[in-house]
Amino acid sequence: MNSRRTFIKNAGMAAAGALLFPSFAHAFAKVKPVGLQLYTLREVIGKDPKGVIEKIAKAGYKEVETYGYSAKGGYFGMDAKAFKGLLDANGLKAPSGHFGLDSFLKDGNQDELKIAIEGANGLKMEFLTIPWMGESLRSSLDDYKKVSERLNQAAEICKKSGLKLAYHNHDFEFKKYDGKTGYEVMLAETDKNLVKFEMDLYWVVRSGNDPIAFFNKYPGRFPMWHVKDMDKANHTINTEVGTGTIDFKSFFKHAKQAGLKYAIVEQENFSKDPFISIKQSFDYVSRELV
């Protein structure tokens, strides 16, 4: 009984503190884990995957997003089982991975899709994410309609394997054809219940668009975000999250509307030690955003 009274008393104090001090409430709020796209550390991870993964975990990250899986090379020279063991040993999960599917998007050949599904399931991912598509696949609105049809097909195949499909943008999707963008076609032509989008906030802002406008028009379609900042002096490069020009706080106010589930840091350019950079970004995102 004493422990029950103590629990009730402490809970009451916490509630009172939350009312009086909003920051107190934040301390008790459930904070989303912060992820890192491993492409950020592409210069070093292939040389020492074990050491790099250990440093990522030490920086505070609880999730990673993979890239570059192949049937022969696996993940950075490790097969899926071994890499999963490495992540587990460091308290990390991989809810998503980037898998190129140009062949499938072009002609429907399922070979590379099957390999991608195998790699994703090997790490028990939730999302199989397409990070890019070749220029030959995206030169008109009709091309984007064909791609959208393929995305619906891939999503159905992924669903049968226990996975969800997502598409990650750059800036080329925002090129206009007769006043309409490829991104708009993809959002409109894909099944909202099957095909999700990983919004790269940096590329949306750099293309001159407003992420919030998409959250408003297509609620729930953006369960993953790439949290990548824009350098103040040179908008073509990245910098540590919170030190650049992007107003992430305004976007995170719409996280629920967007359907945000995974916030994933990415940085492609560095002016300091990459491990210092990813720690700095983690600290900002975990403290100020999620």
From TrEMBL:
Statement: the UniProt record of this protein carries the keyword Ribonucleoprotein: no
Keyword flag rRNA processing: no
Residue span, Xylose isomerase-like TIM barrel domain: 53-271
Domain of life: Bacteria
Keyword terms: Signal
Xref: Pfam families: AP_endonuc_2
Signal peptide: 1-27
Gene3D superfamilies: Divalent-metal-dependent TIM barrel enzymes
Stored NCBIfam families: TAT_signal_seq
Full protein name: TIM barrel protein
